[in-house]
Amino acid sequence: MQQWWLKFRQMENRVLDFFVKHNILIIIAIATVLALVVRLKFRQFESGDFIVFLQPWFDELRAGGGLPAIANYTGDYNMPYVTILALLTYLPFSALTSIKLVSIVFDFVLAISAAYLVYTVAAKNRKMLAAGTYMVMLFLPQVFLNSACWGQCEAIYASFCILALTFLIKEKYWLSFILLGVACAFKLQFIFILPIFVIVYLMKRKFSILNFLIIPVVNLILCIPALLMGKPLIDCLTVYLGQTQTYAEHTGLNFLNFYTIFDTGAEYWNLVGTILAMMICVGTVFWIINHKVELNNQKILLLATWFVVIITFFLPGMHERYLYVGEILAIIYYIVYRKQGVLALAISVAAWITYAHYLFGLEYNPLPYALVLVAVVAKYTRDVFAELGASR
Question: Residue 246: is it exposed, middle or buried by C-beta count within 10 angstroms (0-12/13-18/19+)?
Fold first, then answer.
């Protein structure tokens, strides 16, 4: 009996040693499985966007034979995503399952991308922080609701934006611009992170302005399958221009920002607000140049986050999903540097509220939340410029 007990204890200790040695990987594996369980819970949910847009587009592609139907596609998404939809029509799954499957896969790509960015910029405890980031991203409500519930694809372009930023920090500039080009191919909202690339170009002077041409070239390359199927080139080149006109009569759509306060007069604010957002970006670039800000990893991540936040805050016509990359970056910044936690929490809570309103019919008064965000963003902006000024 004693010999049996000793063998059992030895085996138990070996199991414990294995767990201690590989505890991060084990926890990541458990989190991955649980994240899948959470997403499967929403597998039958049909959002308004799915019913009105995604399912008709999918059915149109399937009825037209898949890839050949791209030539006559009538929706307003860019061709690389439409190509994915066309390929999905060959699978023996419903439109709902197929569309959500791609988005959910990219949830995990996003989590890995965010973890890699944290691993790149963190000075210590890199593995632990990266693992924690991976798990946080998988269980953020705006992440799993966007893909598994809504059927939207923000995780695709966000993954490539974050990877592009990571390789910008690593000074792998060609790869960074290629990845940014992939992000461009999936969502126009990639443009919110573009100012940090301009600033790094101006301040570090380690790559050519011609690198920016990589972005449209990559977009065009990813449109080649659609072009081969007969889609006119002009349609591929102007799809985003058409998107900007779709909701031109609105100052915003279920998004808490400056225009929640001024929720009328779109015919005035859409032009004035666009100019205001552009001038804020241009003014910031000149301020950074004149103050000779020395860019390091922290400053690049700080500025990348701030630009996404401030542009979506002052640009009219924003939807509740457009701050997605900013919400991810704000959380990453807090995880690494333990700063700006209030901002990360405030914009995430705002996203949860607006998602709940659209998806589940939550009733709320947006004005008080918008006023709180005005205060949060104002303090955040003051902190950002204080941090940049202190780096000279």
Answer: exposed
pLDDT single digits (tens) 203-218: 999 999 999 999 999 9
Q: Which residue has the tokens 């944290």?
A: 118
Give the C-alpha separation, 336 to 290, whole Å: 28
Closest CA to 134 of 298, 22, 39, 24: 24
| Type and span of the H or E element at 304 | helix 297-314
The answer to whether 172 and 163 have CB atoms below 8 angstroms apart is no
Is residue 80 a contact partner of residue 222, using CB atoms and an 8 Å limit?
yes
pLDDT for 158: 97
How many C-beta neighbours within 10 Å does residue 280 have? 18
Measuring CA to CA, which residue among 40, 304, 244 is closest to residue 147? 40
Q: Which of 43, 73, 42 is nearest to 56 (CA)?
A: 73
Q: Is the separation of the CB atoms in 326 and 347 below 8 Å?
A: yes
**What is the per-residue pLDDT across 260-297, written as a single tens digit (0 to 9) for each?**
887 776 677 788 888 999 999 999 999 999 999 999 99
Q: Do 258 and 312 form a contact (C-beta atoms < 8 A)? A: no
> Residue 122 region, left (φ>0) first, then alpha (ψ -120 to 50), else beta?
beta
Q: What was the pLDDT predicted at 179?
A: 98
Q: How far apart are CA 164 and CA 117, in angstroms?
A: 10
Closest by Cα among 27, 254, 45, 26 to 144: 45
Percent pLDDT > 90 in the chain is 76
Query: Which helix (H) or strand (E) segment is 374 a member of?
Result: helix 366-390
Q: Given a cut of 60, is residue 391 above it in pLDDT?
A: no
Can you give the pTM of this predicted structure? 0.93
Neighbour count for residue 50 (Cβ, 10 Å): 20
Q: What is the DSSP string of 135-203?
A: HHHHH-HHHHIIIIIT---HHHHHHHHHHHHHHHHTT-HHHHHHHHHHHHHH-GGGGGGHHHHHHHHHH
Residue 209 is encoded by which pair of tokens?
């302005």
Instruction: Report d(CA 290, CA 67) in Å as an integer.
Output: 52
The pair of three-digit structure tokens given for residue 139, joined into one six-digit string: 């269980």
